[in-house]
Structure formats: C-alpha cells, structure tokens
Specification:
With 566 residues, the protein is of the alpha+beta class. The protein folds into three domains: 165 residues, no CATH class; 144 residues, no CATH class; 116 residues, no CATH class. It contains 14 helices and 33 strands. Strand 14 and strand 15 form a beta hairpin. Helix 12 packs across helix 14. The longest helix has 23 residues. The chain starts with a strand and ends with a strand. The structure holds adenosine-5'-diphosphate (ADP) and magnesium ion.
C-alpha cells in the first residue's frame, strides 16, 4: 500500500499537467489513522466528482459497540454520521479553481433516517464513501491544492468524525429516536393498529419546497376515544391517535388539515430525525399511497376488479396502455399495490379520479351498470378489508356515501381531529344513500404476471446504459425515462439510484427467465436484506438509499420497456 507522503509528492508532480493525468492516482493509500481508497477518478473538473472511500479502524474511530448493536441503532448512527459529515465538510472544504475543484460531499439526506451506502460501521472499522472534486486551474491539475485536499483536509475531516469529537448527547438522541420509531412500528400490529400519530406531533411543513416543520403549527392532539398509549424503550410513555385496521375516513372542511395528516401518514413508513415533528408519526411499513396518475403506462395488468366490459368487448384481464386515464391509472396503482401485498392503502380525494371513487344513486339511475365499466372503489373497499385484510385510510371531504363503509370517521376541524364515527353512522342511517352495491370481479384472484427480462432493453448503442437520475422525478434507464413524479413515497434521489441498480441487477441475475413479477421483486428484496444495498452493484456505490418493494415495483411498472407475459 502506498504511503500518504508519497501520495502528496505524486500529486505535486502532477501539478500543471492535463486533467487526465489524475487517473494515475486511482488506488489505495495508507494514512496514519485511516486508509484512503480512490475508486473512480473524474475525467475533467466539471464532470461528476471523483469517488473515494475512507476506512477508519475502530481503534481510532472509537465507536462504542452499544451504538450499533442492532440494525435500528446502526441505521440511526450511520444516518447521524452522514449529517455530521456534511456539516464538517462544509466547514473545511475550500472551493478553489474550476468546476467542482475542492468539493468534499456526501449524499444529501432529507428529513428521514434511512439506510444509505455512504456510511458503514462494524466492529472493525467505519467506512465513509463520498465525492471529491480534484482541483484544477482551467483544465490543468492543481497538484498543490490536490495534495492539501487529500493529505491535510481529509485527515482533518476524519478527526472530526471520530466518536470522541462528536456531540455525544445528539448522537444518543438520534439513535434513540430511530430505535423508538422502529419499536413503535413493530408494536402497531401487536396492538392491532395500522398507524399512530403522537400527541404533540407537528405535521405541516414550511412550504412545498421546505421540508422543515412549520414553526407556527398547531400541535396534533388525539381525540380521547381513539387515544392509545405506548411505553417506548427510550422516550417512555407516549400517547396519540391510534388508527385501527379497517376503513378509516378523514373528513372535514377544506383547509382544515386533512391532506396534511394523510401526507404525514404516507411518510410515516419512514423514521424521521429529531426535531422534524413527525418522529412519532408511525405507519405500517406496507402502507401504499394510491392516486390517479393520468398518462402512466400500464403493462399486462388484470384490471377487472375495477374495470371490466369496455366497449366492443375489449378485455381488461391483461390490460396494457401507454397512456392510462385517471380512473385506469388509479385502478392500476391499487392492483399493483395488492400484487405486492400492501396492507394499507392511503387515498386523498384531492388526487383521485372521482369516477373510480364513487357512483352515486342518481348516476346509477341514469347510466345502467351494464354501460359503466368501472366498479367504484366504494364497492370494493369492504371486501378489500374483510376478505383480503387490506385497510384503507381515505381523505374524503366531498362524499358522505362512504359513511356506510367506514369503521372509523375522523373529522379534522381547525387542524384537530375528532372522532365522529357514531354521528356519521347515525347520519348514514337517517339519510340512506340508496345506492345499489355494484359487485365487481373479486379482488385477489388476479392473474399473476410474468416478468420477461430482456437484457437488450438495458443496452444503448451496443453498450450497457449508464443509470441517470433526475432528482426525485426520473430514472433514465435503457432507452427511456421512467417518470416517478407521482410516486409520492420516494424521498431521496438515492432511492431512485438504488432502484435503477436493482432493475439492472434483476436483468443480470435472471436474463430471459420467467419469474413472476412479485417473485422478481422478492428476489431483489431478499438479496438486499441479506447482503445490503451494496450487493446491487459490483462497484462500491456511495449513493444508494433504502427503498421498499413497492417503490421498486412502481419504477418497473412505469417503465415503458417492461415486458410481461402470462
Ligand atoms: P385540507 O386537505 O383539509 O384542505 P390541508 O391539509 O391542505 O387542508 O391544510 C391546509 C393548510 O393548513 C396548509 O397550508 C397546511 O400547511 C396548514 N396546516 C395543516 N395542518 C396545520 C397545523 N396543524 N397547524 C397549522 N397549519 C396547518
Ligand atoms: Mg386536501
């Protein structure tokens, strides 16, 4: 292994050479306190910065075993270090020269505590994976700055990230918060709940582009009738709204906080950082947001539980379209979630197709059942729960027809929830909707879909395609972009990178095979569970972030090159 002093000399000798000469420093270097591995060297100062790893042995890093003794703590600690790294890097980096010269950067986390491939901790070492902008003046190497970046700044950074230098209380609190949140999510099923919103939680955000808690927010207070309590391992006694399995309606006037509550529940599948306000908003891990998504493709999906008897006998049991309508896209979103055994569906009337949600008595009288291909959600929502065991939480301020099918009705009034179940049921009895129940094809009997994985789909101009990701919106894969704008439970672009890698991994592992769609997804998830996100790529990627099977499936299902057979 080359010594760090030699690296410094080598860099100085590269001074004023063409940028490509940096290629020669790819490799592994021994520093007194750590090992530096330069994995990928950028081609020019404006390109994606160079990728490197640092391995700090635990004798130096000094993290007590207790802080990463179980997966929940380890993820909490790793997440803390990502944030700490960014803070320290901000302070010590010096952006000199052209392009990204001098940059020191790691994946940018949001408000969620997530597993990421940029920090690892075990009994042997701490590994940090990040990007460096190798310094240039114009397109010539600045060797002296490079030597300072690698041989002075990086050791400074490492020193700041050893346990002795960290704010111990903040570390402990971060880890405890994550562990409590995981514990609460486990408790949900034991206590027969699908979601929990703690008293005192702050749900609204500052704005659509600012994820921090709204500072003038009214804290959440649970209605006494729906209040539950837990004794958390760290935080101790906590109380809040417990949402039971079944059908839950969230009603209330416009602007009274319905969508804000649902949004918090959508993201309650993830844990949140201390101070976020949603640390103890906890949703069943298999809860899926459902919405209408006009324009999305649908591939070979059995839509018959919701859409049947199209004009001219067009079948809907193997339905494909490159441009789904509002109702069709929402039906597809539901059935795809069920294909992967979602346990809770989250629906907001603001983003649904009305004709999929409801057909009221007058419309039933005017347009006979035989003329309407759609079985509305209101007629599938009970069997969905009683037969399939899938609960629904719906924001529904506009249609009282749902009172009949609801187990629980929560009214939001000036951002505060009230239990109005009894009243809603009384109203339903007093003013019957007189709708006819419209039986649809049974749920759960859908045809299994077979993935046809054609590696050619991932080749472009005879070369394997590179993955590109645009924010949270798009994965560019193969010949096309996968539009994920409306997949609302994605929170970091690193999830999209990992999902893209998972799709490539599937093609490598099972080329041409006839795996069922669900089995393909399960193969990815079990590999990730056993060997980590890193196992999705042969390269030591620094920017993969945890994803669920639902979001992986969402990407595949929106990929226009997806091939499905019976
Ligand atoms: P609805 O879906 O009932 O029409 P929203 O959830 O969209 O209402 O909320 C309306 C507005 O109220 C939003 O700007 C939101 O940020 C704000 N809001 C929501 N909850 C609270 C709260 N607890 N305290 C203060 N403002 C809130
Ligand atoms: Mg709303």
């Amino acid at each position: 292994m080359i010594d760090h002093t030699q690296l410094a000399q080598q860099l100085q000798q590269l001074d004023r050479k063409g940028y490509k000469a940096y290629n020669s420093i790819q490799g592994t270097y021994r520093f007194p306190e750590f090992t530096l591995i330069l994995d990928r060297i950028q081609g020019d100062p404006f390109a994606k910065p160079s990728q490197c790893r640092i391995q700090i042995p635990q004798e130096i890093a000094g993290f007590p075993v207790d802080l990463y003794a179980n997966p929940s703590r380890a993820v909490g600690l790793r997440d803390f270090l990502v944030r700490q790294f960014s803070q320290v890097a901000q302070q010590i980096q010096q952006r000199l020269g052209t392009g990204n010269s001098g940059l020191i950067a790691m994946v940018q986390p949001g408000s969620e505590i997530l597993e990421r491939t940029c920090v690892f901790i075990d009994d042997q070492q701490v590994e940090l994976r990040f990007w460096l902008g190798l310094p240039a003046q114009g397109r010539r190497i600045n060797g002296y700055q490079a030597a300072e970046l690698l041989c002075t700044k990086i050791p400074q950074l490492v020193a700041c990230l050893c346990y002795a230098q960290l704010p111990t209380e903040a570390v402990q609190h971060h880890i405890a918060t994550n562990e409590d949140a995981d514990w609460l999510r486990q408790q949900l099923s034991l206590q027969n709940l699908v979601a929990f919103v703690a008293d005192g939680a702050i749900l609204p955000r500052r704005s659509g582009i600012d994820d921090r808690p709204l500072d003038t927010a009214i804290p959440f207070t649970s209605p006494a009738a729906l209040r539950v309590e837990f004794q958390c391992p760290h935080r101790g006694l906590i109380s809040g709204l417990g949402i039971r399995p079944g059908v839950t309606l969230i009603v209330g006037g416009g602007y009274h906080g319905k969508s804000t509550l649902l949004k918090a529940l959508e993201l309650g599948i993830y844990n949140h950082i201390p101070g976020d306000g949603r640390e103890f908003v906890i949703t069943h891990a298999d809860a899926v947001k459902i919405r209408a998504e006009e324009g999305r493709p649908v591939t070979h999906l059995d839509l018959s539980p919701f859409i049947n008897h199209l004009p001219y006998q067009q079948p809907t049991t193997q339905f494909s379209t490159s441009n789904a309508s509002g109702s069709t896209s929402q039906a597809a979103n539901i059935l795809e979630a069920l294909e992967l055994e979602a346990k809770v569906l989250l629906v907001d009337e603001d983003t649904t197709a009305t004709n999929l949600m409801i057909r009221d008595r007058r419309m039933q009288a005017l347009i006979a059942k035989g003329q309407e291909p759609i079985t509305p959600f209101i007629d599938q929502i009970r069997p969905l729960y009683t037969v399939q065991g899938v609960s629904s939480i719906l924001v529904m301020g506009g249609s009282g027809d749902y009172f009949e099918v609801a187990d629980t009705v929560i009214a939001m009034t000036a951002y505060q929830p009230k239990d109005v179940t009894a009243h809603a049921h009384q109203i339903a009895a007093q003013y019957p909707s007189d709708r006819n129940y419209e039986a649809g094809q049974p749920l759960g009997a859908s045809r299994p879909r077979c993935l046809k994985l054609d590696p050619v789909a991932l080749v472009w101009n005879d070369r394997p395609t590179k993955i590109k990701v645009h924010d949270l919106r798009q994965i560019i894969l193969g010949r096309e972009a996968i539009d994920l704008t409306q997949v609302e439970q994605l929170v970091e672009s690193g999830q999209l990178r990992a999902i893209a890698a998972a799709i490539q991994w599937l093609h490598r592992q099972y080329p041409g095979s006839n795996l069922s769609f669900a089995a393909g997804i399960a193969a990815v998830m079990s590999t990730v569970a056993a060997a980590g996100l890193s196992s999705l790529s042969p390269f030591p990627e620094s920017d993969f972030v945890y994803f669920r099977r639902f979001e992986l499936a969402a990407a595949l299902n929106r990929w226009r090159s997806l091939r499905i057979e019976d």
